[in-house]
């Protein structure tokens, strides 16, 4: 069964540094998402992406965050100047259509640790 | 903003007992999805409910969507160790965002 893949599985970064989290969505999916989950807490929506542009974004997704689809397969989340509170698990997800109609398929996540 | 409240936060049960988690939205939802996250894993889609009053079953799992489309529940009959994990509801609002509940962690007592 096709999967969403995320790399790296764990990223350790110094506070203030830039970090790029990478995702390869399922190949025939059109909608892509990033979520954040602080350890033991709820899943928080960050951003959705369709047709090479952001569809929706949450209050969390401020100017420090950006997303990109640099080629036909990768979908990246960049955090420009990381803060301690950015430490969390970041999940990428994709769906065939907007979430109202289709389930979202999640990757295994990247654990981001900010020192 | 719109919120989806999910209770309880934790539920400890003996294996074989039932489990229920409830979600309530501050506004009417277009639909609601349920996900399961095993410890250390990622959310996995379980089901989507769309219609007012809808009830769907998956083996020992029963999902309900309220008549007003503001609440939903997941009931597991006769829990097994494989049911352990956190169950999240996620409701779609008018802006197409999925608003997630805080999750209910199912813990099986040894």
Summarize the structure in short.
The complex is a heterodimer of chains A (115) and B (110). Chain A is mainly beta. Chain A has no helices and 11 strands.
The largest pleated sheet of chain B is described as: 6 strands, mixed
What is the C-alpha radius of gyration of chain A, as a whole number of Å? 13 Å
* Chain-averaged pLDDT of chain A: 92
β-sheet strand percentage of chain B: over 45%
Sequence of secondary-structure elements of chain B: EEEEEEEEEEE
Global Rg of chain B:
13 Å
Mean pLDDT of chain B: 93
List keywords for this structure.
heterodimer; A: mainly beta; seven-stranded mixed beta sheet; four-stranded antiparallel beta sheet; 11 strands; B: mainly beta; six-stranded mixed beta sheet; five-stranded antiparallel beta sheet
Q: Would you spell out the secondary-structure blueprint of this structure?
A:
The complex is a heterodimer of chains A (115) and B (110).
Chain A: E1 5-7, E2 10-13, E3 19-24, E4 31-37, E5 43-50, E6 53-57, E7 65-68, E8 75-79, E9 88-95, E10 105-106, E11 110-114
Parallel strand pairs in A: 2-11
Antiparallel strand pairs in A: 1-3, 3-8, 4-5, 4-9, 5-6, 7-8, 9-10, 9-11
Chain B: E1 4-7, E2 10-14, E3 19-25, E4 31-37, E5 43-49, E6 55-58, E7 61-65, E8 71-76, E9 85-92, E10 98-100, E11 104-109
Parallel strand pairs in B: 2-11
Antiparallel strand pairs in B: 1-3, 3-8, 4-5, 4-9, 6-7, 7-8, 9-10, 9-11
């Amino acid at each position: 069964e096709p999967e969403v893949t995320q790399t790296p599985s764990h990223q350790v970064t110094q506070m203030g540094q830039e970090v790029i989290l990478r995702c390869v969505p399922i190949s025939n999916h059109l909608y892509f998402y990033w979520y954040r989950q602080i350890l033991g807490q709820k899943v928080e929506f960050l951003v959705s992406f369709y047709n090479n542009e952001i569809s929706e974004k949450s209050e969390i997704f401020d100017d420090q965050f950006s997303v990109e689809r640099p080629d036909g397969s990768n979908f990246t989340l960049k955090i420009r100047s990381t803060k301690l509170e950015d430490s969390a698990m970041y999940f990428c997800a994709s769906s065939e259509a907007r979430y109202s109609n289709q389930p979202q398929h999640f990757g295994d996540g990247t654990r981001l640790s900010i020192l | 903003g719109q919120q989806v409240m999910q209770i309880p936060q934790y539920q400890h049960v003996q294996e074989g007992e039932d489990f229920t988690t409830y979600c309530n939205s501050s506004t009417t939802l277009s639909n609601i999805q349920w996900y399961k996250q095993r410890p250390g894993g990622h959310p996995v889609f379980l089901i989507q409910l769309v219609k007012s009053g809808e009830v769907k079953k998956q083996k020992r799992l029963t999902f309900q969507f309220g008549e007003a489309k503001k609440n939903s529940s997941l009931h597991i009959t006769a829990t097994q160790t494989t049911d352990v994990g956190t169950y999240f509801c996620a409701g779609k609002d008018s802006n197409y965002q999925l608003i997630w509940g805080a999750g209910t962690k199912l813990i099986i007592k040894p």
